[in-house]
Amino acid sequence: MNVELDDLKAFVKTAEMRSFRAAAETIHLSQPALTRRIQKLEATLGVPLLERTTRRIELTAVGRDFLPRARRLLDDLETSLLTVQEIAQRRSGQVNIACIPTAAYYFLPDVISAFSEAYPSIRVRIVDAGANEVLQGVLNREVDFGITLTGADDPDVAFEPLVEEPFMLACRNDHPLAEQEVVQWEDLAEHRFITVGRASGNRLILDLGLAKSGFRPRWFYEVQHLSTSLGLVEAGLGVAALPKMSLPSGPHPLIASRPLVDPVVMRTVGLVRRPGARLSPASERFHEMLLTRWRTP
Amino acid sequence: MNVELDDLKAFVKTAEMRSFRAAAETIHLSQPALTRRIQKLEATLGVPLLERTTRRIELTAVGRDFLPRARRLLDDLETSLLTVQEIAQRRSGQVNIACIPTAAYYFLPDVISAFSEAYPSIRVRIVDAGANEVLQGVLNREVDFGITLTGADDPDVAFEPLVEEPFMLACRNDHPLAEQEVVQWEDLAEHRFITVGRASGNRLILDLGLAKSGFRPRWFYEVQHLSTSLGLVEAGLGVAALPKMSLPSGPHPLIASRPLVDPVVMRTVGLVRRPGARLSPASERFHEMLLTRWRTP
DNA sequence: AATGATTGATGTGTTACTCGCATGAATGTT
DNA sequence: AACATTCATGCGAGTAACACATCAATCATT
Predict the structure, then answer these.
(1) How sure is the predictor about B274, in pLDDT bands with cuts at 50, 70 and 90?
(2) Which region holds residue A25: left if phi is over 0, alpha if psi is between -120 and 50, else beta?
(3) Protein residue at shortest CA distance from C1' of D19
């Protein structure tokens, strides 16, 4: 049934204006072209919709039935198209990313500053989540891309490394281990160790890294987030192994950082996105800026 | 916004089948032609709807939003087109006319018989109504055309006369007036006269016809329909002036008919239709058959 | 890792369709 | 009867949509 939207528009406008000539003018068509459109619609339907002479136009019974339906169809289409374009525009005016907390404050501030300076009207929405949640968010297209750990990846996403860093010891300045320049993992055996839960990507990496050495630290405290670990260390409740980027970078009144060796456990943080994902230009640009600023050479 | 229905169909089918090639085959298009349609839709909306590689097709976020809307639009259009065609087909399979009662049984039986023999599947629907209702029915397109009186016409309808006939006296066989071969209107003055209401077309014609003679019958009974008049005459309650076609055509055990003169009041019954009205072929044919069978030479 | 089958995208030429212009016939109005 | 205006038709021009040929990309298989 080869009906076209322009046919419906011609019919609706003609029925409303009661004039082929006037309707044609309104929709920027010549009168013969409009007449042909109406004739084509009537031929396709197999029934006249309008009764007309050179001086008078009226709807047929079928035309009267069809007119509100045609109007509704055209209205619904216009609404749909406008809605879709609004969604698209809203999406293209916003960057959505998911990020593990330890990386958010390390990677993003500089790049966000530069990005917002270049694109003042583009908003950046950061979903702060664990490594697995970041991955799910990307897979489910809830966000454009993510910043997460190597271990938490998936065959259906592409990983682009940004930074590789070691886990280090975090303890209070007045802790006995703070007197050593370098701490070995086995040195921790005699101290209360604060760890993160099994669901954490960091925990997975640590477990895998330590498996080779035969040493298994005895966890005394288990928390959900690394940032809570740091809080407990500061409170003097124990020591923790934390990624370097989550530690204070300079001298700290309470917290000391020491290299953890034998083994040195490394983690890689990078960008994950779905291959072939068509990001908005803004998201593509932000993604590029992150790579440019942070990519490991 | 130059979106076309074929664009929507291409998009919906491709999203459902997850294959350009397969979708193209289904809607009888080549794969490049379908690809171009999808590209045109995406260009018009200014946003991609599908992410695709040569081996994998998925909806974008905007595409996922748009797909149910596009489906609904196409479904609504198809429903509308089928409904319109069904109405048109039903109308073209049926003749609808309105007819004053006195004429229905006089004009229609023969023509209906001939018509139904020629067109066995076409149904004929007769709306039995007063002269004014017949006219309204035609003007409001509730019926295709009507059979009514001259007096009940309108500048917007065309009248084609079928039969011109006189009003005659109807009385019981044993009534004194039955003894006269011809009755004059003034003879009715001494007898109870049964008339029809002022809303009746017949009443209007009678009033106008008698106005010239100066004689005004004194109504003793007033009824709504002529057929009721005949019933009261038969019951011996009085006499009535009725159109010839509504009287028994041969000898009747109870009812006598006599010419009414001085004046002779005539009425014309004919077809009314809207000029330029596009009737279905069946209605046109029936209309023609009525004219052929009954038209006054 | 190499190879092959398959698919979406692009270039190109052809065809069909839509358009505007010119004009005719019909229709109300004066 | 004459005139102005409108809908319908004939016709030529231009454009859009199509299929075909082909390329590049992508997975699956070996």
Answers:
(1) confident
(2) alpha
(3) B30
